[in-house]
Amino acid sequence: MLKPLLITNTTIFPGAWHPVQNNVDILVENTSISAIEHTGKIGGDPHSLQELDGSSLIAMPGFVNAHTHSNESFELGCYDAMPLELWLLFKYPPGAVRPISERWHYLRTMLLAIDSVRSGVTTVQDDLINPAFETAALDGAASAYRDIGLRATITVSMGDKSLIAPLPWLREIMPAELFAELNQHVPPSTNEHFRLFEHHYTKWHGQAGERLRIILGPIGPQWCSDALLTRANSISQERHIPIHTHTLESKLHAIEAEQLYGCTLVEHLARIRVLSPRLTLNHAIWLTDDDLRRLADSGCHVTHNPVSNLKLGSGIARVPEMLAAGINVALGTDGTSTSDRADMFRSLGLAAMLHRAGTLDSSHWPTANDAIAMATINGARSAGLDGGVLAPGKPADLILLSKRDFSFMGTDNIANRLAFATGADAVDTVIINGEIVMENRILCTIDETRLRQEIMAAGQLYPEQHVRPGHRSSRRFEPWFRQMLLRTIAEPVPAPIEALRVSAPRMV
Question: What pLDDT, on the 0 to 100 scale, is given for residue 410?
Answer without folding.
Answer: 85
